[in-house]
Amino acid sequence: MTSFPMQPIKLLLPDLPLAEDLLPLLRRIDATRWYTNFGPLVKEFEAKLSQQWPIPLALSMGELPALQVVTLNSGTAPLELGIAALGLPQGSNVLLPSFSFPATASALLRNNLKPVFSDVAADSWQLTPSLARATAAQHPLALVMPVATFGCPLDVVAWDKFVEDTGIPVLMDAAAAFGNQAIGRLVHASFSLHATKPFGIGEGGLFVTRDAELSERVRRLSNFGFENELSTLVGTNAKLSEYAAAIALVQWSRWPEMQIRRRAQWAHYHECLAALDEVQCQSGFETSMPPANLIVTLPMAAEVVARALSQSGIETRRWYYPPLHRHPAFERYSGHWGTPATSLAVTEKLAYCALGLPWHHLLSQAAMQQIALALAQALNSAKSR
Asked: pTM for the complete prediction?
């Protein structure tokens, strides 16, 4: 058995601008003394995204309303405020995948809505329009919240058709999918700009839609619900600061080069893992940017392989483990209606065998090869027991 030097391989390492790259924008802040409350850097960043969203929609969608981008101070804020802006009746049912991060469900409960946990497709690990249609045909839903799992883009054409056919709004939790997720005609989206995301600024988020009235409500909600100096909505303080916008603008200037590098890294990494027949990667990234997080499914319990990789100095994480319906905060909502759309068999299988591997901008080709070899050895060792 090959032994590895104990040089830890980190699971995640953020890729943020260096201090010297921020200085020109920080001096602009010094000159204006405008630090928050929709300052010039925030407006500049929003305008760039609105005009040059990194994923164009297919031409088959036809002419679209202008894109509306609202910057916020966390990745959770666009979920919570986007839901609030929709003005759904309290206690309404909202369909979401159990295979997701707790913020997806928490945003619903903080808006006094009831999460209904759905299973996901076996290939993309996502709540799909067909799963949502099966539930909506039998039970009332006020909202559907599919998740762009680990940055895998959701099919906005299909989700737009779902909204058109059912009248049920759709808010995509696209936290990790900046650069991958297109914005349709009718669906809305929430993005995270957390430090560990592909487009990270430390903390921040985006609410993105083509509904100008809805975006304006979200913006007002982020500023205490103010309109003409009166609180006309029960809002909060979720505005992006000028300092965060400075980081975002530098990241935007780096974005093309970052994606070129990330594609090259992913090509080599994917080749290393493809040699392991028993290891499967999430599908759905064939024509998009690489995943935000690298998750593989294994032919055995993930915890067994995670322990073996840890002994080789390789950090791992069981992302979305346990599924939401097994978290103490949400388990009271774990009962389902018993329809095919709400069976959680795929989710439970993923909870058993899915494991997150190291994936970040400083991961060398040698480290990728080391991870693949250690993974092969861990699988062989576990099978021989």
From this structure: 0.95
